[in-house]
Each structure stands twice: as C-alpha cells, then as structure tokens.
Amino acid sequence: MRRSSSLPLCLSLALASAMTFAVAAPVLAATGGGPGPAAPGLDRAALREAITVRPEDGTAGVLAEVHRDGEAWRGTSGDVVTGKRLSRDAHFRIGSISKPMEAVILLQLSAEGRVDLDRSVQDYLPGLLPEDLFKEPVGVRQLLDHTSGLPQEFEGAPASSSPDEDIERRLDYVTFDEVIRQTLRPEGRQAPGPRFSPGTRQEYNSFGYRVAGKLIEEITGHSFQQEVTARILEPLKMRETRATVPGRSTPVPRPYLPGYQPGSDGELVDVNVQGGLPASMTSTTGDLDRFIRGLFDGRLLRPAQAAELFAIPKGPDGKPLPYAGTSNCTIGPAKGTACFSVGLMYTPLPDGSVLWGKTGSDMGYRSGVFATRDLNLRAVYATGTSLPSGNGGPAVAQRLVGALFAR
C-alpha cells in the first residue's frame, strides 16, 4: 500500500495575500456567532463571510472557532453536497495535527529521563536505518524539527493509481513498522538514502514522525493510542478526540463533517471511514482549542521542554537553517529559512505578531490550529473537501486571517 506524504497545508502561503483576497459569490451561506452583542475585536459578519464556501475552494463544508482578547466566535457553513446544516461540534480527521502530540509525548519522556533528544535513532532503534545508506547519526530532536534528512515516506514509489483504488485503499490500516519498511526497504525499487546531512537543512518530513511514533511505542511498551490518551487527551479533558483503533478502519464520530472524494465516474464518495496510521485521529474545533491552550500554558510540558516548541533550528553561525523546497517557509523577512520547531510551525501576521501551530491533511479533510504564545489570539478551522486537490483549508485560513485583521 502507498500513502502520499502528508505535507502541511501551509498557512503562510495563505497569509501572504490575506488582506487582498477577492470574495466570490457564495454557494452556501455560513452561520455562526453566539449570545450577546458583537465583540469590538471580532467582526462577526466578516468571520461568517470568511467561512462561506466558494466554488473555487474545492470544499464541501467548513467549521471554524476563533478567540481574541477574551471574545469567542464559532461558525459553520453548510454541507454543499447534501445541503444539510453542520453542527459546530462536528468531528473531523485532523491529519498532521497529531504531530505536535507525538512531539509532546517525546518531550515528556525527555523530562522523565527516558529519552535524550540529542541521542541518535541508531542508538534507540538499532538496525532501523540501513547502515550502508545512513552513515551519519540522526538525532531524535531532528526527527521532530524536520532536520533529519531522512527520505520522504514511500519516496520513489510509483504514482498513485485510479481514484476508485485510492478511495478503497483509504480503509487500510498501516502500522509504523509497515511505513518504515516500505520506505526504507521497498520491494522492486531502489531504497532511498538521505536527502541531506542531518542538521544542515530543514525540510518538512512526515516519515520522521513515523520513526518518532515507532520510538514512542518501543520506549513505553504501549501503543500510540494508549500514550496519547493517557498523556494528553485525558489530562486536558479532550473527550471528543480519539486516536485510531489499531488494525481497524473506523468512521468519524457523529456529528461529523463530511469529506468527499470523487470516484472515476465523478460521483462524490463520503470518505469519513478510514484506516490510516497509529497516529491518525479525529477531533473537534473545541478540543483542538483545548489542546493548544494546554500546550502553551504549561499543563503538558515543563519550561525546558516547552521551550523546544518555539525554537527554530539554527546552524553553527547562529542563523536559522536554510529550508529545502518551496512549499513552506516562504513569507516574511526570514523566508527561505526554517519555520518549523519541534512539532509546530510559525507564521508572521500582518500586525507583526506571530502565530504558532500546525495544519493537517487526511483524505477528504484539511484543518489547522494556531495561536499566539500568550493565547490571546487562537484559531481552529476544518474543511471537508469536494475535489481531489481541494485547497479549502488554506483558502479558509486566508479569509479567516483577513477577517481578523480587517478593522
């Protein structure tokens, strides 16, 4: 089985033109808000307009939650495929937003003295990286801040097949071991080597987090599902968030945000039932807001470990490492250099402040959660797609930021 690498839907690209987005005619109007008068700091009409689905979005539905200076707003669009309203408490698949949770677990294990972030993967998981190809040590921290130089997952695999086969394969459950084996020891094609020397560049890399997931399970003797539940979901009372049941394909819990994928005949298929990976998860906007609050306010990490969340990797000259590729880290005065820390990414805002957070992508779903370090500004969004290449996540993120700064 092959799954595409889950590259982030970079909010930075959306922010670059946030203030100049041209609003097209809406397809299905959004609803949102709450009791009481409109807050001076939140333009609720602009926020509702921001999540209104547009034809070019490739989006079937939108959920959003925004907090600013103590004021809150939650809203939804409708499902443009069925015409039904969406619950503001709807569940959705969060994709790579699980990566900060993996990072938290390893940071907690570091605080407990069970993991040294500066030790190598080769020390902890001997034999996992083929010695003939990976001659330099790859540090645990480098897995988490995307400086490992490891290949992308399933690198070199042939292009995906028909839409119908892709839709069917979404039901497969793939373990960390299987992803690692199919990437590093593929059958019928050459095994990939390092993309660059560890610690010399940054490149977003989901495969590093598959190795990190394997390391968590090896050190703790527990599944990722058990560890994330005990260490994050239960302490933060994230009761609507669930990790994938190992070995099974499962539906998104109801009420849910539908995500669609067109088959070969063009008919849209609701793909909320998926197998995924051990780190695959479903959640709600409210629970993801709880997560980022708990992440930034000290409930999950001690100060030394929390500092890793906001530390951009630097070279011997003290400057941020160069960023490999063109999909991320492309705006602001530091464009072209690293914009990912351990588990998070940073994005400059029009007023000079900075958001920290993470985007996610699963088949049928795009989502993101971001906040300023003081938590005065927080935003969570999720979209269900209606096209294979639907970019509704970035488009919605762009419009939300425009609404937040349009005064």
Structure notes:
The chain has 407 residues and is α+β, with helices and mostly antiparallel strands. It is 26% helix and 15% strand. The chain contains 12 helices and 12 strands. The protein has helices at 11-15, 44-50, 98-111, 121-124, 140-144, 163-169, 176-184, 206-220, 224-233, 285-296, 303-306, 392-405; strands at 31-32, 59-68, 71-76, 92-93, 242-243, 260-262, 268-270, 281-283, 345-348, 354-362, 365-371, 377-385. The strands form 3 sheets. Strands 1-3-2-12-11-10-9 form a 7-stranded antiparallel β-sheet, sandwiched between helices. Strand 11 and strand 12 (377-385) form a beta hairpin. Helix 2 (44-50) runs antiparallel to helix 12, helix 3 packs across helix 8 (206-220) and helix 3 crosses helix 9 (224-233). The longest helix has 15 residues, at 206-220. Residues 1-28 and 34-39 have low confidence and may be disordered.
Instruction: Note the total helix count.
Output: 12
Radius of gyration based on Cα positions = 20 Å
Q: In terms of structural class, how would the helical and strand content be classed?
A: alpha+beta
Strand fraction equals 5-15%
> Looking at the structure, what is the overall shape?
globular
Q: Total strand count, please?
A: 12
Helix content percent band:
25-40%
Q: What order do the helices and strands follow?
A: HEHEEEHHHHHHHEEEEHHEEEEH
Unreliable stretches covering 5 or more consecutive residues: 1-28, 34-39
What is the rounded distance between the termini? 49 Å
- The averaged pLDDT comes out at 89
Main β sheet profile: 7 strands, antiparallel
Order the strands across the largest sheet as they lie in space: 1-3-2-12-11-10-9
